[in-house]
Design brief:
With about 450 residues, the protein is α/β, with parallel strands linked by helices. It has two domains: about 290 residues, Rossmann fold, CATH 3.40.50.1580; about 110 residues, Cytidine Deaminase, domain 2. About 30% of the residues lie in helices and about 20% in strands. It has a five-stranded mixed beta barrel, surrounded by four helices. A hairpin with a 2-residue loop joins strand 5 and strand 6. The termini are far apart.
């Protein structure tokens, strides 16, 4: 840690009690009793959207046996949730908004860790979001190696009329490599590369679809090609500042993980459906959680599936799966039957996917919980299910219907484990002599 860059003149007076620090935009102060429950924080996860923060916190709580979720009192600017040693918080859009959140979070961490620089440096930071890709298809995930501005130079701020304050834009190589390694077995397209952060969504990103545009198709493409040739793989609006501030204090464990919504070499406007966009966003979160489960959880919920001919060394954590299914059930839309159902599944690479039943007035268009769970699986990159738990509103195991057994067989195969009212069964047990993808002539 670079202790000379830390504002000890202010922060140490907060530690000795001679001053109170007010984290205004989060609605907290250093005297708030809520902070007594947060001294063990091990990670701070930031994202632009408050909705994404709520989803992240709920997911991490489920993975930690339903750990309590603490909500920060003020949510008109930023949404913040704390659960199982991780602080999840939104930062808004753009570097001005994100810099407010980040400065207050850095002050807060200094207070929580009582100025212990070694303890502070053990905390993992991440910004998770969306971006425009460069030479990458929509749905790719970029783990940033460096954050730069539109001129390929690091983040800087005006120093009155005398010059500029410059910041370092690199992201720790080791952390980038660990995140990619944690996702090596997934089907997602996870790559590393430089990231450009723009002060403006339209002008500094050389877009042609803004109300104001200074570029031509030729100057736009020349700039994008220059970025690509220099190793830039995506464009967003916060990363250069995030890297700059965290480097300034000397943190060694931080990252940025962004899904791409579009390939900017092919156009400016995002034309994907809302369902596709939600899926792209989920993929960035999936990459993050694969890393968190690998490096922060003391043990993963399940082990990898056995190779052919080997036996399974450990059973899935069925209680964690049941709790996840119960949580998913609360989102059921079942006004016609009054029978909500939740489903939760684990993939071979440790991801958790969930779903609830969604009914329709036409009845025939109703989707079972297992159907929406499979949609969740496919929207975050697919993969093979190894264990599934379906529950009713009393948390009791339910047997999937015939259509859903066929869906589960498609995405889990004959060895997938299913919790039933009679105990754990394989798909081969509940759907014998099944018709499936194995040997299908068009696969």
């Amino acid at each position: 840690m670079r202790t000379g860059n830390i504002n000890h003149a202010f922060l140490d007076r907060v530690l000795d009690g001679s001053l109170a620090d007010f984290y205004y935009h989060f609605g907290l102060s250093s005297k708030d009793p809520l902070l007594e429950q947060m001294h063990g924080v091990r990670a701070i996860i930031m994202a632009g959207s408050g909705r994404r923060i709520r989803e992240f916190a709920e997911h991490w709580s489920i993975l930690n046996d339903g750990a309590e979720i603490l909500a920060f009192p003020k949510d008109d600017r930023f949404i913040a949730r704390y659960t199982a040693d991780i602080l999840f918080t939104s930062h808004g859009m753009g570097m001005p908004s994100a810099s407010i959140a980040l400065q207050e979070l850095m002050r807060l961490l200094y207070f929580l860790k009582k100025g212990d620089l070694e303890e502070m440096d053990q905390v993992f930071w991440a910004r998770v979001g969306t971006s425009g890709g460069l030479g990458l298809p929509a749905g790719s995930v970029v783990v940033s190696t460096e954050g730069v501005m539109a001129d390929l130079k690091p983040y800087r701020l005006l120093k009155n009329v005398d010059g500029q304050y410059w910041f370092e834009g690199s992201f720790p190589v080791k952390i980038c490599q660990e995140i990619i390694a944690a996702n090596a077995d997934s089907s997602m397209n996870v790559v590393s590369g430089k990231t450009v952060a723009g002060n403006d969504f339209f002008l500094e990103q050389f877009r042609l679809d803004g109300a104001i545009s200074f570029e031509t198709p030729e100057t736009r493409m020349a700039w994008l090609q220059l970025l690509h040739d220099n190793g830039v793989r995506n464009i967003e609006m916060e990363g250069a500042m995030v890297a700059g501030y965290l480097n300034h204090w000397g943190f060694s464990r931080f990252a940025m993980i962004c899904a791409t919504l579009i390939n900017r070499l092919e156009g400016d406007q995002v034309t994907s459906t809302p369902e596709q966009l939600h899926g792209f966003s989920q993929e960035a979160g999936a990459v993050l959680f694969n890393y968190l489960k690998t490096f922060l959880l003391e043990h993963r919920p399940v082990q990898s599936p056995p190779e052919d001919g080997q036996t399974r060394d450990a059973e899935p954590d069925w209680e964690t799966l049941r709790q996840a299914a119960v949580a998913a059930l609360k989102k059921s839309y079942s006004p016609y039957s009054g029978f909500p159902v939740g489903a939760a599944g684990l993939t071979e690479d440790g991801r958790l996917v969930c779903g609830a039943n969604v009914e329709n007035a036409s009845y025939g268009l109703t989707l079972c919980a297992e159907c929406s769970m499979i949609f969740h699986l496919c929207s975050i990159g697919g993969g093979r299910l190894i264990a599934v738990y379906c529950v009713n509103d009393e948390g009791q195991a339910l047997m999937p219907c015939g259509r859903c057994r066929q869906l589960l067989y498609e995405h889990g195969g004959p060895d997938m484990l299913l919790m039933t009212p009679q105990g754990v069964r394989t798909m081969a047990d509940v759907l014998p002599q099944a018709f499936g993808p194995v040997g299908f002539p068009y696969c």
